[in-house]
């Protein structure tokens, strides 16, 4: 496994619409492993393939497994989600405001409205169909990552973007 470098908006790949994953072959498995390793190393809560300059519809998401996360997310804490070709098939009307940061935009965070709950479909790393219902913070992370697949960044839709102080930055997980 290899830690890949995370690109920033000066690289045009981050602004491209990524193509669907067609083949779940050996090369794809390596890509998934590298994405996971890169995410954990960053560290971050979510990563989309375009962030490592691979224009494919693939995201990985991992919630922390500390005490606080277990309290909030139960069984989902520490769980790793690998989703190819994710699609939001349902979203709540209700929007919630929250603070986000992006691994591709270091040194900044922003205030973003997201749907409170969503249902996504997609495929796991073997190509098997999957369906995930997500609320709250997890729903936010999925929306942020899926936006990356369409070349959209949180700064495009944020109500406010700012440079956090150190303590404030520590509180925001990067996606
Ligand atoms: Ni991001």
Walk me through what this model shows:
With 175 residues, the protein is α+β, with helices and mostly antiparallel strands. It has a single domain, classed as Peptide Deformylase, CATH 3.90.45. The chain contains 5 helices and 8 strands. It has helices spanning 26-41, 67-73, 136-149, 154-157, 166-171, and strands at 46-48, 58-62, 80-91, 95-100, 109-115, 117-123, 129-135, 160-162. Strands 1-2-3-6-7 form a 5-stranded antiparallel sheet. The chain has a 3-stranded antiparallel sheet with strand order 4-5-8. Nickel (II) ion (NI) binds next to α3.
Provide a concise account of the structure shown.
It contains 5 helices and 8 strands. It has helices at residues 26-41, 67-73, 136-149, 154-157, 166-171; strands at residues 46-48, 58-62, 80-91, 95-100, 109-115, 117-123, 129-135, 160-162.
The residue fraction in helices comes out at 25-40%
- What sort of overall outline do the alpha carbons produce when their principal axes are compared? globular
Q: Could you please say which CATH topology applies here?
A: Peptide Deformylase
Task: Tell me the β content.
Answer: 25-35%
Question: What's the CATH H-level homologous superfamily?
Answer: Peptide deformylase
Mean pLDDT: 95
Question: Major sheet: order of its strands?
Answer: 1-2-3-6-7
Give, in order, the helices and strands: HEEHEEEEEHHEH
Instruction: Give the name of the CATH architecture.
Output: Alpha-Beta Complex
Which ligands are bound?
nickel (II) ion
Total strands: 8
Number of helices: 5
- Biggest sheet details: 5 strands, antiparallel
Distance between the termini: 20 Å
What's the CATH class label? Alpha Beta
For the record, the count of structural domains works out to: 1
């Amino acid at each position: 496994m290899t830690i890949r470098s995370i690109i920033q908006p000066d690289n045009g790949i981050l602004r491209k619409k990524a193509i669907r994953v067609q083949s779940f072959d050996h090369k794809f498995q390596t890509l998934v492993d590298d994405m996971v390793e890169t995410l954990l190393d960053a560290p971050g809560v979510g990563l989309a393939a375009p962030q490592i300059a691979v224009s494919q519809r693939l995201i990985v998401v991992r919630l922390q497994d500390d005490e606080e996360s277990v309290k909030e997310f139960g069984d989902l804490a520490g769980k790793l989600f690998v989703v190819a070709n994710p699609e939001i098939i349902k979203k709540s009307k209700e929007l919630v405001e929250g603070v986000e940061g992006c691994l591709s935009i270091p040194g900044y965070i922003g205030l973003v409205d997201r749907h409170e709950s969503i249902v996504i479909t997609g495929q796991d790393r073997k190509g098997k169909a999957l369906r995930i219902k997500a609320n709250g913070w997890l729903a936010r992370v999925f929306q942020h990552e899926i936006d990356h697949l369409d070349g959209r960044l949180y700064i495009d839709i944020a109500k406010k973007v700012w440079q956090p102080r150190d303590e404030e930055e520590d509180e925001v997980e990067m996606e």
